[in-house]
Write a structure and sequence with these properties.
five-stranded antiparallel sheet; five-stranded mixed sheet; alpha+beta; Beta-lactamase; single chain; D-tyrosyl-trna(Tyr) Deacylase, Chain: A
Length: about 475
């Protein structure tokens, strides 16, 4: 029933419309692989545009707040107290009545933590162990995204650079931390490099590669597996052995060396002879940047990371935050930087620990109230640059990690937008949903010590669906 699905998704987009000007809402769909087609086009265009990493792309800036957008669309929510009786006069009591029976579900473990807020005011409408620190799993990506956007801005782009000696015969491929770099981007870089070399009458070079942008161990505590590669500032296709794969996939042992190998092959296809070994190291003395390719704007990168729950991008964004804050770009330094940057946003950080950017490390801790505070900041008129935290959340029944949940005629289909979190014994969901009177709610449901995701995920979905009814 495509007409119903399209209507549901359009309704959800209109209610959420926190970043989109009224005209942009119509042009925003459809969604493809977790990102709007228009955003995919912008990302592809960003690959071919030269320029600085902070250059602002063409197009409308984020809208300042939700109410003017909703008014322009003719969908402005009614006041929360209009004609709703006791439910409107005491929403906390109504939420407690709806949620507490569902929170007794054994699938949620012994003590789930909950926070539900009104995103237009930031007022918490319901809380249960909302200040208890818990393992967040991938819901910590909300914090990673907010920190990176706050530190760098939504238009920041991450460069991958080729440096050359004055005679242009010794090249170094310099990784800047772009975890979205694919073979198409690397091919563009090779073509530009070959063009510059031919202009200088250079047809033979040596090539090295530089990963010094990051420090410390590059191996995540869980090790290399299908969910994450070694954390390095230089990689292509996220180190996947099958470049066209998505989701969990086998990874190469040395993503940086593999990217340099691919770049060497691409240079040779452009008619540039590459001699000697391709080895790691800093650019040779006197080297200067020759050419570069840039990542998509950070807003697009954040949306991709959240929608797909991309661990490689999440770790990259945490380290970019560390670089921006002059912290060591390592796991430890990135954790400090994220905490420092979130403190600037004045959100409750008591007990929080950011062990990594992705949430794969079980040593990480957040509270439900911290997650809803971050969603509130992302909705505020004072923080338009944080809107991708909201627009990147998967849409129930449609995109990313919620594509197979809240499907069909389920109450939350097309309306619930939330970041999932799943580890062994940990299940979580945090995002936004419109209530029946049009109020946009932010929620965080964290469940630790769960028995299985097949029990926990439906229980979480029933909680979020209850917010729509």
């Amino acid at each position: 029933m495509p007409d119903i699905r399209t209507w549901q998704l359009a309704t959800g987009a209109a209610v959420l419309g926190l970043v989109l000007a009224a005209g942009a809402v119509t042009a925003a769909g459809p969604w493809e692989s977790g990102r709007r087609t228009a955003e995919l086009d912008r990302a592809a265009e960003a690959r071919t545009e030269p320029g600085g990493g902070h250059r602002r792309p063409a197009g409308p800036a984020p809208a300042p707040s939700a109410p003017p957008v909703l008014t322009a669309l003719g969908t402005a929510p009614a006041p929360a107290t209009a004609g709703r009786g006791e439910a409107a006069g005491n929403p906390a009591r109504e939420l407690a009545r709806r949620l507490e029976p569902l929170l007794r579900d054994r699938g949620l473990g012994p003590r789930p933590g909950v926070s539900v807020v009104d995103l237009t005011t930031g007022r918490e409408l319901y809380g249960r162990d909302a200040d208890r620190t818990m393992i967040p799993a991938s819901t910590v990506k909300i914090a990673t995204a907010a920190a990176a956007l706050s530190a760098l801005g939504p238009y920041h782009r991450i460069p991958t650079t080729v440096s050359a000696t004055p005679d242009a015969r010794t090249l170094t491929l310099v990784g800047g931390g772009d975890a979205t770099l694919d073979r198409a981007g690397l091919r563009t870089l090779a073509r530009r490099t070959a063009g510059d070399l031919r202009a200088r009458k250079v047809t033979a070079v040596t090539l090295g590669y530089d990963t010094s942008a990051y420090r410390g161990p590059d191996l995540h505590p869980i090790g290399v597996n299908g969910n994450i590669a070694r954390v390095t500032p230089l990689m292509v296709d996220q180190g996947r052995t099958d470049p066209g794969s998505t989701g969990a996939a086998d990874r190469v042992a040395d993503p940086a060396g593999d990217a340099a190998r691919v770049f060497r092959e691409l240079l040779e296809k452009e008619g540039i002879a590459v001699g000697g070994d391709t080895a790691p190291g800093r650019p040779a003395a006197g080297s200067k940047p020759l050419t570069e390719v840039l990542s998509p704007p950070l807003a697009d990168v954040v949306e991709q990371m959240l929608t797909r729950s991309d661990n490689d991008i999440a770790e990259s964004l945490a380290r970019q935050t560390a670089i921006a804050r002059h912290e060591e770009p390592s796991f430890a330094g990135a954790g400090r930087a994220v905490q420092q940057q979130l403190a600037v946003l004045k959100v409750p950080l008591a007990g929080a620990r950011f062990a990594d950017g992705s949430g794969l490390d079980r040593a990480g801790r957040v509270t439900p109230r911290l997650l809803t505070a971050l969603l509130t900041r992302a909705a505020e008129p004072a923080h338009p640059g944080l809107r991708p935290v909201l627009t990147g959340l998967p849409v129930g029944g449609f995109t990313g990690t919620l594509e197979s949940r809240h499907t069909g005629t389920a109450p939350g289909s097309g309306l619930i937008r939330a970041k999932t979190g799943t580890l062994t014994g940990v299940n979580a969901l945090s995002g936004t949903v419109p209530s029946p009177d049009g109020t946009l709610l932010g929620f965080a449901f964290l469940a630790n010590e769960t028995r299985s995701p097949t029990e926990a995920q439906p229980a979480l979905d029933r909680l979020t669906a209850a917010l729509t009814s």
